[in-house]
Amino acid sequence: MHWRETMDKELEAFETNHTWDLIVLLEGKRAIGSRWVFKVKLKQNGSIDRYKMYLVTKGYTQIEGVDYYDSFSLVAKTVTVRFFYCNSYCLWMTLLQMDANNAFLHGHLDEEVYMLPLEGYDKAAEGLVCRLKKSLYGLKQASRQWNIELTSKLEAYGFKQSPHNHCLFTLCSDSIFFFLALIVYVDDVLLTGNSVDDLDKVKRYLDDLFTIKDLGHAKYFLGLELSRSSHGTYIPSEFDISMSSPIPFHCDKVVIHITENPVFHERTKHLDIDSHLVHDHFKCGFILPRHIPSAQQVADLFTKVLPAAMFSHLLAKLGMLCHAPT
């Protein structure tokens, strides 16, 4: 019963969005197939949220240069998403989460794509095929076309696309101080800002265009669980594993010195900022460097030119044998 109702809603969405026209397949043209995909959406606590069905085309049968030209689509970088969290919470701005219903159905197709009608689709007469006007799941260009459509609507509202990450959009005003930021990951949207009224306006604007599902305050996004309290914001670890003691790792004296001391000299100035993660983990007590003699350092196999005897010795420590012809 759940699946039948879900299927009817999907078909209704196709007709409302004018996803296709039923036409006679022109000579020399080819139509791709499709199928239904069933998925049970779960809530944060693991209980059933809703039943979802996707009409997925057999995009793997599409021919590049005929059925599609470009398929690359942007997604937000993980580091950008984390910075988005931190910026919102540090400034105590409202952080909202939204989901675009049938997101890919809103992308307009530039190519001629034909699809065989669904089995049991009442409105499909014999000999007719669906000439797709909008994207469907499974099409090579579906995600790209949805991203283009959403970007154009956000820019029309006044948002500016970040030149560093094209899935990040900002909107601010100098005369009346307010700031809004929005980040997109396929059909998942995070929205933050310091003006509740302006946040509501953006939500209504997007809902009128794409039928957005308002998920309220962000609690779970891209596998990260979020929680806020008066003491700060937490991103819990996936398995909630606590460590009773630091994790030892074996290295030489120079690495130990760099790890235990925030030194800066000619040999380390080329390191990126994120390369100091080891030093930060040492300060937090997550890791503990331990000295190992060069004669036992198997990592030298990959970084140094070694004598034959030393090479064979370290190779044996890795549990490997040399089967060279000589």
From TrEMBL:
InterPro entries hit by this protein: DNA/RNA_pol_sf, RVT_2
Record Pfam families: RVT_2
Listed SUPFAM superfamilies: DNA/RNA polymerases (SSF56672)
Domain Reverse transcriptase Ty1/copia-type, first and last residues per copy: 17-233
Source superkingdom: Eukaryota
Name of the protein in question: Retrovirus-related Pol polyprotein from transposon RE1
